[in-house]
Amino acid sequence: MWNKLRLAALLVALGVSTITAQNALQDPVVYFSKQVEGDVGYGNGLFLYEQLLVATSSDGTVTCFHALTGEELWEYSPQSSSEIASHSGVAFTTENAETPYMVYSIIENENSLTPMSLVVALDMDGNELWVSDALSGVASGTPVISDNGESVFLTHNSEIFSVGHFSILEADAGTLSYNMSDPFNAFAPPGIYHNPAQGWYDGGEGNFNDMIMWTVSPPPFATSIGEGLLFGFQYPPDPLDPPAAITLGDVRNFQGITPPVMTNEGKSAYWSVSRSNWFTWVGIEGLKRTYFSRSHTANIGFTRNAQFKGQPCFAPPALSSSTTEPVVFGGTAAAEFVRTTFDFSQKRTKTLSSIVYSQAVVDPADRVVYYAESAGFVHRGNFVNLNDNWVYELEGGTQGEIALSENGSILYVADTGGKITALQVAEIPATAEPSAPPSGAPSAEPTLAPAFPTPSPSGAPTTPLPTDIASAPPTGVSAGASKQIWAISLVAAAASLFLN
To answer: Which stretches of 275-367 are assigned E, i.e. beta strand?
Structure first.
């Protein structure tokens, strides 16, 4: 089946190798809807890999659909005599892995005094490749995979979230190859940057292996935020040297519950952290003081959570396409959504009716940003001023991760009850449309919908934003020209068909 999907992807690529960044629809259209087993909670959600749409549920079920037709391809449920829970999404291998696969984490007996976590690896047809040995405590978020696909990294917390662990699994069978523990701190989920320019920390110069970072996490039901630490890991350049996770710099004044988002060849990082703050390290070539082991470049604070003033922001920031000076979007620890410049020198805030628990997604041509409130309101906001182009209301609330197709035409969201809604938000090229659309799906014929607003060449507003200004009332989508994007080359697509 996976080879058939690759063939379908190739045929799509042949027809859309010069597709436009699609014109926006005035309002979203329900393309298809599906129901999965189990609730889709915080940390779960929807994830795309080529033509696969993969959903994780809080009971550990993973369900896979064809992303264009909505056809259910397979479902996987872990087998255990214990009660199973999951707060994980799925991570996929990169194109550099010898064989593609995905991983996610599950927890046995989470509410007991001795919960155990496991990592599950599946192939693209939903077959179980391996289940790791049981690891102490509760897995933190989603595991991440090395660029070559040979290692899986995760954090997990034991002793009622008082001891944090960082573990490495060998991807041939899921066996534990390395573990580091902190007896005083719980760990947030790890973030990864594949093949960085070098290890961007003191002592890491010249190391081009994958960079993994994570921070200290406040325990559940915390009443205050204590001191924090940053941790980093890279395999040593000399494979004969033993691996070792390190502390990056001195004690920090923040903690977090999300992974960092790294960019700029691994030299810059953005982190949503405690007390409703964002921190950034903006890496500058040759300037050691911008290393992750030094003080941050900037931080910015937002409205604090009414129930817990120290509450970290619930989701990582989302970045625009620029790697050196990205525009940064995301929800805070309160009911608001924020846009800032790369260095946090300017911000724009939009007040919402509920909290944003999932990471926002930015249109591939940096024209709009999509995000979902926990009350079930899905927004398409203007890239520059956050004004709503439209708001779509789901039947239930939503906490899980959302996903956007590579060409920006279909947005996928799931409510907490497990109902998946695929929203067509822009034109879909006729050549990329499945031959038999699902019942009730819109026609593949080109529409005459207006285009997205066209940003300035840099993606920044043509005039400076006020330092902090609430967005104006929602406006409609303004007309503008669509932009050509070379999506997939014929040679690359054909080569992918014959990979093992």
So the answer is: 277-281, 298-301, 318-319, 328-331, 336-340, 347-351, 361-362
